[in-house]
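Anyone? Bumping this.
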Amino acid sequence: MRVAILAHERFPDRAKTAVGVLRYGDQEVVAVLDRETAGTTVGDHLPDVGAEGVPVVERVADAPDFDALLIGIAPIGGGFDESWRDDVRSAIERDADVVSGLHYFLAEDEEFTALAADHGIELRDVRKPPDDLTVAEGIVRGLDVEVILTVGTDCSTGKMTATLELVEAARDAGLNAGFVPTGQTGIMIDGGGIPIDRTISDFTNGATERLIRERADEYDYLFVEGQGSIIHPAYSAVTCGILHGAQPDHLVLCHEAGREAIHGYESFPIPDPADLVELYADLAEPVAPTELLGGSLNTYELDADEAEEAITEYEGSIGAPAVDPVRDGADAIVERLLDDR
Amino acid sequence: MRVAILAHERFPDRAKTAVGVLRYGDQEVVAVLDRETAGTTVGDHLPDVGAEGVPVVERVADAPDFDALLIGIAPIGGGFDESWRDDVRSAIERDADVVSGLHYFLAEDEEFTALAADHGIELRDVRKPPDDLTVAEGIVRGLDVEVILTVGTDCSTGKMTATLELVEAARDAGLNAGFVPTGQTGIMIDGGGIPIDRTISDFTNGATERLIRERADEYDYLFVEGQGSIIHPAYSAVTCGILHGAQPDHLVLCHEAGREAIHGYESFPIPDPADLVELYADLAEPVAPTELLGGSLNTYELDADEAEEAITEYEGSIGAPAVDPVRDGADAIVERLLDDR
């Protein structure tokens, strides 16, 4: 599938979804839309994503043919920026689908809906879960698949990135590995998945279970993108539903170096990662026992020496191998899966 | 408020909501509708709910004046039984509101909606959460109120009943105590509350927090109705959201005597209650430390001697006083709150 990615005025530093699709997506990206950096190429900004020659253009009219337009940025609040309307309209008129992770649903916009019907294209709002979700049956352990779940000490600790790097490392090692997306960026990168944080709480475990069940025949290893943290004052329900719904055989604990309190909830200190490993394992145990496979440490703010030191310290704390997946990939963690076979 | 309660063919044994409202509700019940036991009185079936002379009638036309019709039964699947349509129609024509906990929303039924508009009455579907829910801010510990949450070893262990009996015992002891309903039966009994199991998982903690915040000024003690169990394969997300959203100072662990596995999920054994106390406390700790106040044991299946024995054994296991709230009330647990003052 050929895609164009809308990232106006935010590419690449504030365009998490756009960069995620470029780095990890199976789609062929033919253009990035950013009126501020138009005239450059993706390679000028991101030399390491395998998209050197892809043009950054001002508007849809300047892009080569594509099958879908992806909204690759998410402003605070998740609203639709009216300055994007011309591009969305042009994309539909070129018979392309439009995929969006915004809170604002394109499929509820009157102009887009009418135009989409005329052109027979799909408006896909990836933040909208399927409407036929049900309660979990608790059957994942009976499926012929090994499940690895990334969990966090907090939100935004790199769970999606760690999960995608684990999939890549597992495939490089010859494993038949699949990605299980649970958030809107992961869904846009993968094309499938369910935004677990938008499901009705009675069905949160069940929605996660469904994602595993749908993929269990196709893969030997499934790497599930975690959400939130089990100690997050606001989002722990999502985390708990994923933990019990996915029934993971292994956990990978994701943390950001130096973060000492829950982001945005600074009066809640993050406990010692070792205590969190124990808490996740104790909570999983009565439903499906699990064990720590490794750790992922986001060392973006550190230089190379500091990062190495932080990773060594983190390994000591959690008692398992750790990586910064962006610096090092995730081979060191996948090796432990190979040892287990 | 004067209410009539619809409980056709199910009163009293399979009419949990009807019996709950009769036993604990502040409403004045003027009639129960059950075409099978019509001609009897509530007292013939339930001598201990203070509604001896209330008639059981065949249809709305036979009932005295009332302000609201409550649907007091919930068939498997939560559908609307068409044999109830005449009664709902008659109630609206008598200018009464209709309150329902069914999955089927009365406010989406064309006939009822049109009729309701004509008569200026409200169709209240208590399974529908408010649409302006938000994420939790983690502020309950800053409010001037003491929070007690019932938690369970499983679903259907008597959490709602225990909570209501705790409120009653606390009021009898002179405490300014309020009930926080989180499920449809509790909501129908109380008139307020949010069905937490129907909230979007990102807002589950926040919806719980909102319930506490709204009542914190009015009461010194709030008793929160728990849901599910933290080890339930399907419903743990709901339980976790309530635990972290409510930030309870105290827990009351509810269990059914003799139950050894999760109901409907028989391959999942229920751990030793003592281990569950520890798990709930460990999970609560990083957000808001809590401690066990007491236990509630459902001994419905046992005779008096067996019940006493089971309660003593349960107390030994959890290391705190326990009651069967239906047999004994909850004074023994509330006394510990008084000791704390």
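Late reply, but here is one note on the structure posted above: The interface with chain B takes residues 135-138, 196-202, 204-206, 230-241, 243-244, 265, 267-271, 279, 282-283, 286-287 of chain A (CB under 8 Å).
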